Amino acid sequence: MNKLYIFLKYFFIVVWTVFVVAPFLWALTTSFKDFQSVNGGVTYIPWVDFEPNLEGWKVLIKSPARGGVDIIEPYFNSLFVTCTASLISIILGTLSAYALSRYTFKAGFVKNNDITFFFISQRIMPPIVLSIPFFLFLSSINLLDSLTGLIVVYIVLLMPIAVWIMVDFFNKVPREIDETALIDGCNPYQAFLKVVLPNSIPGLIVAGMFCIIFGWIDFFFAFILTFTEVQLLPVKIVALNSSVTPWWSLSASALVSVAPLIIVAFIVERYLSKGNLSGAIK
Amino acid sequence: MNFKHKYFFLFPGLFVLIGILIFPIIFVVRLSLSGWNSYNPGLDYIGLENYIRLFTDDPRFWESFFRLSFLSVTTVILQYVIGFALAHMVWKDIKFKRFFRVLFLVPMMTTPVIMTVIWRTFFHESLGPVNDLLSVFGVAPKWLTDPVIAKFTVIIVEVWQWTPFMFLLLLAGLLSLPKEPFLAAAIDGASPVRKFIYVTFPLMAPISIGAIIIRLIEASKIMDTVYVLTSGGPGTSTETSSFYIFIKGLREFQMGYAASMSFTYLIIMIISLTIIAKVLTKVLLKE
Questions:
Q1: Segment 204-233 of chain B within 8 Å of chain A by CB
Q2: Do A161 and A210 contact (CB within 8 A), yes or no?
Q3: Which terminus of chain B is less hemmed in, N or C, by CB atoms within 10 Å?
Q4: Is residue A1 part of a domain?
Q5: Same domain assignment for residues A56 and A81
């Protein structure tokens, strides 16, 4: 019985590992292929099935005029939009989360939990519902196809995540520490900045990671609200997909685009193992 | 604590969010009462005409909605089962625990549309590895062009992409469980299966509900994957609500009609997710 369980466990882990790794491996080998080894039947192992070359990776640094794919600018656009929107969301979200965790609000039937729910429930909003008014609205104030417009929209996507994680986190930070700070003569803002925040760094990092993930992977708004002036990375890659870009350079650009966030997986795992994520889900 | 300060903490975030959202929401409602399209752009007033058309004369919207329900419920169930299994496996000590934890998290960190671009080459009917390996058995499923199989391709890609999120939430939950019930079960000599049924699963019920609801919310937005993988095709066989609204609104520029659809869709989403949350809470917590 026990042996069977252990066998099944490792079998399942191995199967899932293969499934997770397969597309990456496929993209990695494809990125070293040439025309013959892509179109002349399926090939797998470099040097055995086909002769690897660096053509796919070279186009990443070439200028578009000479057959390059030009993903450097979209890369920095994506980075800028994601980081700015995450930063704003974290700052505003943390302030609100602190208020919701420490003070009581009451306006008619609206209480703390309802306000928290209002923040978090913005994730329910299907992006398509917002995209049509945003499209018309941003075009009327000339912010369509601009980074500013995108940042505004991304704040709506990211602030709920920041509030969600930070409310739970602040609930776990003991109230006594801000009370002690207040007794020692801090005003509430000093208490927050000098005492509570330094004790919340793990929570801030987790919230930041999630904001960056969900900002970086968004495609929909970037796709609808930008055209040619600014392009974000996912939009650019999808555009490559529908044009005549060969598979090898497509695979190389895709791999380069998904690589940076894999570092985030290590950070998230570290905080997960320390137990810093546990409160966030209830 | 002082009365006024709390508003300085709460209001910046709250007002920014409301400020960004209030206009679009009101505008969607107003737009849905207009006949805005590419020939006649402008906020005229045509009453409930759009809604009447939607409820009486547009089976395609409702088909896309049921398709979306099927896709999101199926993927979330699969993600929950697989995610729970994976989390349970790397919860206690196994070899290379941290390696597997990181590995299982990785797909969630990758941009769905970019991975879907890779999946498209992966499932390519003549040049992709899947059909090449399957050709050993003499079958060659049309992963992207068969109306039925294409749905399962979408499910496979979604499960690959988002099981890690479920895994993350459930593993975080497992790691936060108290130790005492497990000690008691160990003293009673409970088998692993009984331990799971009587101790782990009930303790995980609240977390499971949270995780399922969160994933259902996110899954109900399936659109990126579909757009890149099949563009809703073949025909309309993988078209989801969001995608259909997108076609009507931002491809055919029937803004008024698209707005009425998106408002209806939003209301249905809120109602059905609330009901699902209530039902799940009852079922899982009463066991």
A1: 206-207, 210-211, 214, 217-218, 220-221, 223-224, 227-228
A2: yes
A3: C
A4: no
A5: no
